[in-house]
Amino acid sequence: MRYFFLEGQRLAGGLEVELDEQDLTHAYRVLRLKPGDSVAVADALGTVFSGRVTVSEPKKVRVCLHDELSSAESPLNIALYHSLSKGEKMDLVIRQAVELGVRRIVPVVTTRSVPELDSSKEKKKNQRWQNIARSAAAQCRRAYLPRVERVRSLNTILPEFGRHRTLVPWEEESGGSLEGFLKQPCPEDKAVLLFIGPEGGFDAGEIRAARDAGAQIVHLGPRILRTETAATAALAMIQAAWGDLGQERERQ
Q: How many other CB atoms sit within 10 Å of the CB of residue 4?
């Protein structure tokens, strides 16, 4: 079943809706949807309905909604804070994080971040990242559309570390592992903040600042992982321990 997001509109069974302009070319020319074809439409806030195409034209695709579908959302509210990475690595991080159920992604400038994002290009880059998140969310049938926020500095995110359970993997940590930490009960508010460092790693001052702000510093094991691998591995472990990864699926 083809999947679309329709933001800013309340969905209900029996309602006829029109797909967003950004989805028209894909729906009409790529997917070649025809009247009668089955699709799913999500409101990006957690609700998704099945529906059938009623109108399919180059400038208009309309869908009549039918039944509400069960959500593929994790019970966890995970925010991924990730140091800026070079090339297409940030694209990969965002895509995989969305697939693994993250609700919010915040790019962060750290001491060893590569590259430093030019402010004049930030808006365009952020829109690209949001489009990647949207595509990934539709691909894995999410009812919630994760947001990629503006680039932040380390100092601006530190106050948030004390509000939720915050985990910071660091290759030089010799104490507790993430696997061991996740044996503890899940936070009552189901909120988790994961902060992943750059390719060169966090420096000691950044780790001290994170620890002082309330973060739990952990390690991911004996091997040094690439930054994009570390994010995926940590998210998968968190979802397996506290979320819905590996749980039995409900039949629709």
A: 23
Q: Give the H or E element holding residue 93.
A: helix 89-99
Q: Read off the tokens for 248.
A: 């039995």
Element housing 153 (H / E): strand 152-153
* Cα 31 from Cα 101, distance rounded (Å): 26
H helix intervals, 111-215: 119-139, 154-157, 178-181, 204-212
Bridge partner list, 39? 2, 51
- SS3 state of residue 122: helix
Domains of the chain: 2-69 (2.40.240.20), 77-242 (3.40.1280.10)
pLDDT digits (tens, 9 = 90+) for 163-222: 999 999 999 998 899 999 999 999 999 999 999 999 889 999 999 999 999 999 999 999
